[in-house]
Amino acid sequence: MTQSLDLFPIGNCAASGLIDRAGRLVWACAPRVDGDPMFSSLLGADPDAEPESHGHWGVEVEDLADVSQTYLRNTPILVTQMSDRSGASLQVIDFCPRYRQFGRIYRPLAFIRLVRPLSGTPKVRIRLRPTVNWGERPAGRTSGSNHIRFVGGETTLRLTTDAPVSHILDERTFRLEEPVAMFLGPDEGFDADLASTCERMLKETTDYWRRWVRTLSVPLEWQEAVIRAAITLKLCAHEETGAIVAALTTSIPEHEGSGRNWDYRYCWLRDAYYVVQALNRLGAADMLENYLGYLRNLVDRTRGGHIQPLYGVGMEPSLTEHFAAHLPGYRGMGPVRVGNQAHEHLQHDVYGQIILSTVQAFFDERLFRPATIEDFRALEPVGERAFQLHDKPDASLWEFRGRENIHTYSAVMCWAACDRLGNAAAKLGLTERADYWNARAATVRAAIEERAWNAKLGRFAATFGGEELDASLLQLVDVRFVAPDDPRMAATIAAVEKGLRRGPYMLRYAIPDDFGEPKTAFNICTFWLIEALHLSGRTDEARQLFEEMLNRRTAAGLLSEDIAFDGAELWGNYPQTYSLVGLINCATMLSRPWASVR
Predict the structure, then answer these.
(1) Which of 137, 214, 305, 537 is 20 to 30 A from 295 (CA-CA)?
(2) What is the Cα–Cα distance from 278 to 468, expressed in whole angstroms?
């Protein structure tokens, strides 16, 4: 089985992992999502090609004939069913426990695997092979009568099991005559009956997720796709701090041999803004409120000064980029990067994204902590930075590493920062501050309309005074800078579609960058095109293109960052929050209303 992105995420907003089509846990990091991958084979040797490889946790059936996988309805709990050639079968239930206990959410760094015989007597072998220090070596082991400790890395983990420990230590094939429970978690004794406790955790975790899904306001159409995307976006949250990571992986290349291998396990303020915006459309206020706590702490730390495009999930500012020398990379396509140099970039749109994320809290009566006048005062320095930088060069949202320009998208987000502060001030009754910020917004708008508009070409350009095309121009409608029926926007949409569309899919940009010309499409940009088509009256085309994107999802119902022009393969980090945001936004926009069936 060749490595692919056809993977199923599990998690609990503290732990997360990816399971392949053979039922192996092939990616999971500790102690956090941005930590050392204890299960690293997604970026290491393929277990099928190299049986002695490490970095995975598999339950292997002798004489395997068939494997099928599905999530329990409205949960991130995965059920893998395997059968052998004689008809004997079993199921593996994978999940990370999450439920309310003692007045708080229980979400340990823990993975539970329940192996249950279904028919006959399947013969199984359990290969549990974590690594340490980015695949440098297998974890050391110590063991007792019912546990195995994995040591030598940043985190010591303990497997507690009711299977014979020696079967697992020696990777011995044995008859599965009764259910087996495995709890891999903190290095602590398990002071309860393992099987019954894990079954209780399964029930309570199932109940938690189904109750959460029941709070969502989903569209009539495509409900299953939207629910799966929403659950997965929640898995990308580091709940302890409120951070939301861009993806669960690092270094999945944007296309074969591209070298465009980035570490996405950090909190980009831009990506997180889009996530909370999409979940807001579904009514998931819990993600918004927790993320706003993360933002308030960041704003306090910067004291109105420079704000980076991204931070660690613990608000770490320094994410120095380096290579993990011991991992060959996805299908051998290194390098494997740890950290991200973009933390050094100037990306001026982030000031707008902070305020756009926050402004709802001044109006939303559902929140436990509505925004206050003190919050407004704390945001004003962010708005001042946006105003100061709206016409200054930056690396753009696409994080160019070798050039800077004054980018239209960044300027528009700076306008949005001033405009929304005007809205918040008006809501608080601060008439003078509302006038102040509305005047600043008008100044920025005038600069954009003069300098980003290319009169010769009759459209907006991606840079001030330039001619470049950029898919982010499609976002001018979403942030209400221009109306969808504005002739200037119609001309811009037409130019972007003509210049950047490749079959059904959209590029970010078509010009060469630091790594040459892009060779895959960028999934969020295709969703932006779908929105633009719908808003310009081409709804039938938009729905057709949306169905095309739904058909390109993995078996888990998810998308990565990029897709080949022929649609045959997904590339880039996975699951990508941007792409899932696009799916949710387009579904809510295109769906028939509930009133049509009530």
Answers:
(1) 214
(2) 28
* Radius of gyration of the CA atoms of the chain, in A: 25
Q: pTM, whole model, 2 decimals?
A: 0.97
- Compute the distance between CA of residue 93 and CA of residue 195 in angstroms, rounded to an integer: 13
Alpha carbon distance 111, 201 (integer Å): 11
Secondary structure of 386-432 as H, E, C letters: HHHHCCCCECCCCCCCCCCECEHHHHHHHHHHHHHHHHHHHHCCCHH
DSSP one-letter string for 93-145: EEE---EEETTEEE--S-EEEEEEEEES--EEEEEEE-EETTTTEEPEEEE-S
The 10s digit of each residue's pLDDT in 413-438 is 999 999 999 999 999 999 999 999 99
**516-541 pLDDT, tens per residue?**
678 899 999 999 999 999 998 999 99
Does 402 score more than 70 pLDDT?
Answer: no
Res 7: pLDDT: 98
**Residue 507: which residues within 8 A CB-CB, separation 6 or more?**
471, 500, 501, 518, 521, 522, 525
Residue 157, pLDDT > 90, answer yes
CA 28, 29, 30, 33 dihedral sign is negative
Phi, psi of 368 (to 5 degrees): -65, -35
- Positive or negative, the CA dihedral 43, 45, 47, 53 is negative
| Percent of the chain whose predicted confidence (pLDDT) is above 70 | 99
